[in-house]
């Protein structure tokens, strides 16, 4: 839900306790009807509402008067008028309203290539002909006894 709509819903929730019981019932009924609408139907309703807000007050009053006249008609008369009206594409309403889901707040962890990868940022690429690691010093031959580094004297075991 975008910030603007969220702010409007919070405002409605804050005003709700101060409403008269009939107003609360009407608000809840409207909210249930709105929740049953498909997202496309909601978008169309918002566009119609915006277009009515843009017209002059006189034209708005005329639309309101025509709506009141229409609502007093019998079902048969309404059906007759609907059959004469141009067909509008039907929007499929889901059987159940979409479940409200919390935004995914997980943080993506970047993947770092393994150190053995030739493109690893931790290791500079080497030529395939170069040795992989520096050679360790060779141990002295077994015939000579090991020598202490500071005195150059053989170890005594």
How would you describe this structure to a colleague?
This protein is mainly alpha-helical and 157 residues long. Among the domains are: 1-54, no CATH class; 56-87, no CATH class. Helix content is 45%, strand content 0%. It contains 5 helices and no strands. It has helices at residues 3-15, 21-36, 39-54, 57-71, 75-84. The radius of gyration is 39 Å and the shape is rod-shaped. It starts with a helix and ends in a 73-residue tail after the last helix. The model has no long low-confidence stretch (mean pLDDT 76).
Summed up:
With 157 residues, the chain is mostly helical. The chain is built from five helices and no strands.
List the defining traits of the structure above.
mainly alpha; 0% strand
Fold topology:
Layout lengths: L2 H13 L5 H16 L2 H16 L2 H15 L3 H10 L73
Mean pLDDT: 76
- Portion in strands: under 5%
Biggest sheet features: none
Q: Considering DSSP H and I runs of 4 or more, what fraction of the residues is helical?
A: 40-55%
Radius of gyration: 39 Å
Q: What pattern of helices and strands is seen along the backbone?
A: HHHHH
Structural class of the helix and strand makeup? mainly alpha
| Shape descriptor | rod-shaped
Note poorly predicted spans.
none
The number of E-state strands comes to 0
Kindly report how far apart the N and C termini lie: 80 Å
- Helix tally equals 5
